[in-house]
Amino acid sequence: MHEARLAQLGITLPGPFPPHDPLDAVVVHGGTARTSGQLPRDAAGNIRTGVLGRDLTSAEGVEAAELCALNALSVLRATLGSLDRIERVLTVTAFIACTDDFVQQPTVADGASHVLMQVFDAAGRHSRSAIGVAALPRGGAVEIEVTVALKQGDS
Predict the structure, then answer these.
(1) pLDDT tens digits for range 10-34
(2) Model pTM score
(3) DSSP label of 37
(4) Where are the beta strands (DSSP E) in the chain?
(5) I need a labelling partner for 123 at 20 to 30 A (CA). Which of 18, 73, 111, 113 fits?
(6) In the predicted model, is pLDDT for residue 61 greater than 70?
(7) Is 7 helix (H, G, I), strand (E, B) or coil?
(8) Is CATH 3.40.50.720 correct for 2-150?
């Protein structure tokens, strides 16, 4: 059902882009799956870099957060075999590289939240934190982590 929704939306997932050793892209435990931080990589693996409030606008940050969400879905699919194993999205943590006076972190994080809502519909509703930081790995503009609940008997 979630895989069909991706196709219906015309979404092609980038990656997956696994993290460096010794990290796992996704850890599955006790009926949940949690991603490592996902950067805004396009299909070629290029990272959207920059600092919000200095190099990038809020709209560009939203696009970066959307890419992060797509990358999270990509590593979840690679680990789980199918997004159809996901019952619902539980939480999203968004880190936004920004200047100290930038206050649009929730707006930027909405990019990731909207992607998850599009794909999972009501099951995509989640709790979320949007945190401004001075810098992110590889100069990424945004990084997100996603935790999902798996369908019963699917842990």
Answers:
(1) 999 999 998 988 999 999 999 999 9
(2) 0.96
(3) P
(4) 26-29, 32-35, 86-97, 127-133, 142-150
(5) 18
(6) yes
(7) helix
(8) no
C-alpha 31/C-alpha 8 separation (Å) is: 27
Domain boundaries, the chain: 2-150
Determine the pLDDT at residue 152.
Answer: 87
**Pick from 92, 84, 90: nearest CA to 151:** 84
Q: Name the DSSP class of 141.
A: S
Three-class SS of residue 140?
strand
* Residues 130, 141: Cα–Cα separation, whole Å: 13
Residue recorded with tokens 């945004």: 142
Nearest to residue 108, comparing CAs of 140, 149, 85?
140
- Select from 80, 70, 9 the least CA-distant residue to 43: 70
